[in-house]
Amino acid sequence: MTQKHTAPDGLVIVDKPSGFTSHDVVAKMRGIARTRRVGHAGTLDPMATGVLVLGIEKATKLLGHLALTEKEYVGTVRLGQNTLTDDAEGEVTSSTDASAVTREAVDAGVARLTGDIMQVPSKVSAIKIDGVRSYKRAREGEEFDIPARPVTVSSFSVYDVREGVAADGTPVLDLVVSVVCSSGTYIRALARDLGAGLGVGGHLTALRRTRVGPYKLDSARTLEQLQEDLTVMPVAEAATAAFPRWDVDERRARLLTNGVRLEMPEEYAGSGAVGVFGPRGRFLALVEEQRGKARSLAVFG
């Protein structure tokens, strides 16, 4: 869709550049789409690149539900050094010769961090501790603990192990990895914990997000490309890709949009958010099943 004066409703899949915060990308998109009503579905660290899902206008109502979906990454973990931020942006806090770490030990360490695990987020993160961002407390030199929380690492694979030497002369190992995980998982915390488990320390040196839910890198566009041609995925198409679909007739569509709680077919029980579509494929609402009836999460039609 070509840029117009009236901002279109829909999702924009951005290939985020390194060095930009997610808020920076939102600010850029506000200029490109000529609207203040832009949001994102889940942040991506400044160092990281790849898929960042933005919503424009009415599509911002989808974002909170999309943020909860599974994510996929490729990255590089450096064994042999810890950093203040658990990634390459922070200063090195310790160095240990990692040249004796075997592939078998790496695989065992990765296996321990796969599945349903308890993870302590990085201290330099956006997690709130008593209402204050963790990174703010860390930068002020405060001593504090972040409670561990459950996350799911569906897949954690090592594709390559490369020997190297860090800038301070420490022998290191660089692991090329891919991770599929639940929302809220910190890949740099996985790098930190893998290094800790192996006794040599670890941090993340590169990260690229290749998927958020059903939205993949092949449909993402750079900010430069979007400046030339604002490619927007219509709300109905975005909902079809991300949520189970429930088609209703004209009468039910009218009742639903008037706030009536419709009875839902049993097949949607426990499905989470469900997209409701009326005649002619009109996207009406996101609902969830509650005691057999449809509870509205967001109304569009």
Task: Describe this protein with a few key phrases.
3 domains, 9-stranded mixed sheet, tRNA processing, RNA binding, Archaeosine Trna-guanine Transglycosylase, Chain: A, domain 4, 4-stranded mixed sheet, isomerase, Pseudouridine synthase, tRNA pseudouridine synthase B, 22% helix, 301 residues, TruB_C, alpha+beta
Detailed description of the structure:
The protein is an alpha+beta fold. It folds into three domains: 10-69 and 213-237, Pseudouridine synthase; 71-212, Pseudouridine synthase (2-Layer Sandwich), CATH 3.30.2350.10; 243-299, Archaeosine Trna-guanine Transglycosylase, Chain: A, domain 4. It is built from eight helices and 17 strands. The two termini are 21 Å apart. Its EC number is 5.4.99.25. Keywords: Isomerase, tRNA processing. Residues 188-229 form the tRNA pseudouridylate synthase B C-terminal domain.
Q: What is the element layout, followed by pairings?
A:
Elements: E1 10-16, H1 22-33, E2 38-40, E3 49-56, H2 63-66, E4 71-79, E5 81-83, E6 92-95, H3 103-112, E7 115-119, E8 128-129, E9 132-133, H4 134-139, E10 149-165, E11 171-181, H5 187-197, E12 202-212, E13 215-216, H6 223-228, H7 235-242, E14 245-247, H8 250-257, E15 274-277, E16 283-290, E17 293-299
Parallel strand pairs: 3-12, 14-15
Antiparallel strand pairs: 1-3, 2-3, 4-11, 4-12, 5-6, 7-10, 8-9, 10-11, 12-13, 15-16, 16-17
InterPro entries: PsdUridine_synth_cat_dom_sf (IPR020103), PsdUridine_synth_N (IPR002501), PUA-like_sf (IPR015947), PUA_sf (IPR036974), tRNA_psdUridine_synth_fam2_C (IPR015225), tRNA_psdUridine_synth_TruB (IPR014780), TruB_C (IPR032819)
GO molecular function: RNA binding; tRNA pseudouridine(55) synthase activity
Protein name: tRNA pseudouridine synthase B
